[in-house]
Write a structure and sequence with these properties.
Dihydrodipicolinate Reductase, domain 2; six-stranded mixed sheet; alpha/beta; Rossmann fold; 39% helix
Length: 315
């Protein structure tokens, strides 16, 4: 498949680097300031070196990447809320050309799910977004295999940064501010960690899950979610939980009725008490019971594998 990669952060970069080993060819790659477009195949190493040297991935206009010869658009720009731009328009441009779109960007799927599906219905292209929920963990593929109609809900730890902070606070008895600074030093948390520690990232993933489970019967956006973060959680809460054989994790819950995210007490050695940056999802399925999936829910290489798996399913 010929790929146009839009967004050259950790995920987009990894997709471009791995594409050849998955049997695909990058014909366009773009960031917010430039692009490299080549119908015979982009020299990915040269384009990324240009990005490292100049801050732009190429000298072409970014719009040229959307008009390039490709089979699948990879939407890997940063997630934005509300109108989900520019990611939504990038996907629209692909679908209007009857091309496929694979998203790592959560914004268009969480905030404009109905519009996205309507565009897909009017196109010969398809939209896939497994990488937007859980990175390399096959949460959405498992729901598809079981059948969304047979899944009553999904709950779990869906943000690695918040989980790192909580598990370190519990294990070492450290204060929130101390652990957050450590996470930032290690590159686990962003300079502005609000998206993660306030629960927004986990909520967006749960909104996507709720939309998939609802299957068009109703539509959810972030504004429909009940969200509480971990910023104000005192260390004493973790100490008290430990006395009772429990701990605290930021748990997201998605059903056909709605989305909730917040700190929850869980058994200290139970399946939801994953440590560090690991994620875990529990899928409650008719007949199959509760299915648990755990692994790395973020990271450039990890998420890129989910993106490229989606591309492979389109082939």
């Amino acid at each position: 498949m010929r790929l146009a990669v839009i967004g050259v952060g950790a995920v987009g970069r990894a997709v471009a680097e791995f594409a050849d080993s998955y049997g695909h060819e990058v014909t366009a790659i773009a960031d917010s300031t430039g692009a490299t477009v080549e119908s015979a195949g982009v020299d990915v190493s040269a384009a990324l070196a240009h990005k490292d040297d100049t801050g732009a991935v190429g000298d072409d206009d970014p719009a040229d990447a959307l008009a390039a010869d490709y089979d699948v658009l990879i939407e890997a720009t940063p997630t934005t809320l509300g109108d989900a731009q520019p990611g939504f328009d990038h996907v629209r441009a692909a679908l209007e050309r009857d091309r496929h779109a694979v998203l790592a960007n959560k914004g268009p799927v969480a905030e404009r799910y109905g519009e996205l599906r309507a565009l897909e219905r009017d196109s010969d292209g398809s939209v896939r977004f497994d990488a937007a929920v859980g990175g390399a963990i096959p949460i959405l593929p498992t729901i598809r295999d079981v059948g969304a109609a047979r899944v009553s809900g999904v709950r779990g730890v869906l943000n690695g940064t918040a989980n790192f902070v909580l598990s370190r606070m519990a294990a070492e008895g450290l204060a929130y501010d101390h652990v957050l600074a450590e996470a930032q030093d290690l590159g686990v948390a962003e300079a502005d960690p609000s998206f993660d520690v306030e629960g927004t990232d986990a909520a967006l993933k749960c909104v996507i899950l709720a939309n998939v489970l609802a299957n068009g019967e109703r539509e959810f956006t972030l504004s429909d979610a009940t969200v509480e973060g971990i910023r104000d959680l005192p260390g004493s809460a973790l100490e008290l939980a430990a006395e009772d054989g429990r701990t605290v994790r930021l748990i997201g819950e998605a059903t056909r009725e709605g989305v909730r995210v917040g700190p929850r007490l869980v058994p200290e050695h139970g399946p939801l008490a994953v440590a560090g940056t690991l994620n875990v999802a529990q899928i409650d399925a008719e007949h199959a019971g509760r299915l648990s999936l755990s692994g790395r829910g973020a990271g450039g290489p990890e998420t890129a594998t989910a993106v490229l798996a989606d591309v492979g399913r389109l082939g």
